Amino acid sequence: MRGGDNTAARQGRGVDIRPLLPDENTQVPQVWNRAWGAGSARPARQQPYPLSQALWRERLASRHHDQSLLLGAFAKSELIGVAYAKVAVSPWQSADTGWLALLCVEPRWQGTGVGTRLAAAAVRSLQARGCHHLRFGSDADHLLPGLPQEAGAAAWRLATRLGGLPGNAEHDLLLDLRTTLPPAPLPPGLRLRDDRPEAGLAFVTAAFPGRWAEELGDYIAGGATVITLERTTADDSTDLAPAQGFCMVFQGDERVTSPGLLWSEALVAELGRPSARVGGIGPLGVAPEMRGAGAGRALVRGAAAWLQDRGFTDAVINWTTLTGFYGRLGARVWRTYQRVHADLPPPADEVPGTEGGHRGGDPSARGRNAKERAT
Questions:
Q1: Which domains does the chain have, with CATH numbers?
Q2: I want to staple 85 with a disulfide (CB 3.0 to 4.6 A). Which of 51, 62, 69, 335 is the partner?
Q3: 227-241 pLDDT, tens per residue?
């Protein structure tokens, strides 16, 4: 097919869209990587988001994976594009919200309408599940927190056709651990520990119930380390003291991939230091009564020092808007993503005066349908 009819490719003819079969799942990283290799806005660099089979298997094993929402575009038997949607599974998620977690098209088929058709098919699937709102990225067990800065104009045009509106910018930050970290002393009466994961989980469950609590449980089960912030006592016995804050740290050998290390392969290439050792920091949080006294910054510095002590040269702090807070410790912006959301119309078979759910349920076709009705 790759050496076949270019005219057909340009017009997007002969393309069928359907859910992938489980034994076709392994083809997705190749399509993603070729799409990003051709479409990245970073010239003369390795593609910025290399998706490995190992990471993809993690996503497929997630409680949030639904095989029926993993859609492929096929030209004869060749997979030429993928759209991956998700719906709410956990109690902390909004039941009326769906997520477009992944959308990619083989370079030869880009610009033919295949991406638009895949996105529309994903939206129809979400509408059929009762979703009224759409988020681009930021899904549970995500690959991307939003639309990446490296995404080209075509991605934004597609998001706009789906009704997407840009929201806040989120960042992955990079901290150089080869230098001396700025001082950030702990307030009196507090200390950090790395041997009480159960205290960290109990704190997050009480203080940050929902997404963080679910993720923290998965991270701990996968072998990640929790740095806890705790009060000291007169006899220095804190085994029963509740945590007052937490910070996750990752070394890259855990059974679950840190969200900060999803794209560490690209980072090492960009740094130009093949021997770089990259760790992950975050999420983290402190109790309200601990805020404003420097405990949060001391907690981050303690996590960074923990990685330093184990020979790490760099750390990624993922998915944050707090660039100034982390900047005081030397962290700089590495990657930027923009949140995008859209309100979805009801399926056509729920709208009075419409017939058939296919065309009316396609947000990208609304303007075209209006023209057809007026002629």
A1: 6-163 (3.40.630.30), 174-336 (3.40.630.30)
A2: 69
A3: 999 999 766 565 678
Residue 357: CB atoms within 10 Å:
17
Kind of pairing, strands 314-320 and 278-286? Answer: parallel
Q: Under DSSP, is residue 294 helix (H, G, I), strand (E, B) or coil? A: coil
- Residue 266 CA: distances (Å) to CA of 42, 274, 367: 12, 11, 40
Query: Both tokens of residue 87?
Result: 């719906």
> pLDDT tens digits, residue range 182-226?
999 999 999 999 999 999 999 999 999 999 999 999 999 999 999
Residues in the chain: 375
The residue among 332, 300, 308, 333 whose CA lies nearest residue 179 is 308
To the nearest 10°, report the CA torsion of 308, 188, 245, 300.
-30
**Mean pLDDT of all residues in the chain?**
89
Three-state DSSP state, 341: strand
Question: What is the phi/psi pair of residue 142, to 5°?
Answer: -75, 165
Pick from 151, 147, 144: nearest CA to 339: 147
Residues 111 and 330 sit within 8 Å (Cβ to Cβ): no
Q: Biggest alpha carbon distance in the chain?
A: 84
Alpha helices in the chain (DSSP H): 6-11, 28-39, 53-60, 114-128, 153-161, 197-207, 211-221, 264-271, 295-308, 323-327, 357-360, 366-374
Helix or strand or coil: residue 82? Answer: strand
Percent helix, strand and coil across the chain, each to the nearest 5: 35, 25, 40
Tens digits of residue pLDDT in 116-173: 999 999 999 999 999 999 999 999 999 999 999 999 899 999 999 999 999 999 999 9
